[in-house]
Write a structure and sequence with these properties.
about 250 residues; alpha/beta; eight-stranded mixed sheet; three-stranded mixed sheet
């Protein structure tokens, strides 16, 4: 089994990525209900392969479960920033965060049980994959045992994390700041509900000239290396994913 990596070029809207993610989750859930079902290449021994969806979006604020239905109309208007940003409520854990140009957003859709992961294991796996990605660029980082995400040694947050699980099938994932263009947008919110905390990026940490796509490929390799039963990464296209061809490969 390989980790299938779909990287979307350019800027991709939240609604488009949510559609792709929902499709992949539905395939995993359908396989759980009936491992051999019509119009797919699945079998009892071949569940859907894990798929990593990576992209960068237009300026977008998302609200996690802890903030659902908790924002006032004035707060929502503030997030829209006179039409300069979108705002969506998401099923992921956590509070309000930002996604936009210069940030790698990565959604991993997989069945935790296939890879012998508990929900806690899965969060630590994502954090470890980010830490390994940053180490590849010679950036030292750490996890925080209280607040999910990844932090640099100067106490700034370089990556956020928020996931959703349904019958052990994961969705949503991580946001890793690559370029400095993301940083002013974090100043407009209490980042992930942590007053006084500041964001940073690979660029701010001295790693210049790296694209989101560059970092996405490194992250995919590190994630594949941490998943039990996964032998490596294979790149796939959007059409292949949406056709439902996500069986073992």
């Amino acid at each position: 089994m390989h980790l299938r990596h779909l990287h979307l070029p350019g800027l991709t809207t939240y609604t488009q990525t949510a559609h792709i993610q929902s499709h992949l989750v539905s395939l995993h859930l359908a396989h759980k209900r009936s491992p051999a079902f019509p119009n797919t290449n699945f079998s009892q021994s071949s569940p859907p392969a894990p798929t990593l969806l990576t992209f960068q979006s237009p300026p977008t604020y998302t609200t996690g479960r802890r903030d659902l239905n908790a924002l006032s109309p004035e707060q929502i208007a503030h997030l829209h920033f006179d039409g300069q940003a979108e705002h969506y409520e998401a099923l992921r854990g956590g509070q309000t965060t930002y996604h936009g140009p210069g940030q790698l957003t990565a959604y991993l859709i997989c069945d935790l049980r296939t890879h012998n992961l508990t929900s806690r294991d899965y969060v630590r796996f994502l954090e470890s994959s980010i830490i390994s990605t940053l180490a590849y660029y010679a950036i030292t980082s750490r996890r925080d045992e209280v607040n999910p995400g990844v932090w640099t040694t100067d106490g700034r947050k370089i990556a956020s994390l928020g996931v959703h699980l349904r019958r052990y099938v994961s969705s949503h994932g991580i946001g890793l700041n690559v370029g400095n263009e993301v940083l002013p947008w974090f100043e407009r919110i209490v980042m992930c509900g942590l007053p006084g905390k500041k964001a940073t990026s690979l660029e701010s940490q001295g790693i210049k000239g790296k694209s989101v796509h560059d970092v996405a490929e490194v992250f995919a390799d590190k994630a594949a290396g941490g998943l039990t039963g996964v032998e490596g990464v294979v790149k796939v296209g959007e059409e292949e994913v949406m056709d439902g061809d996500v069986g073992k490969r």
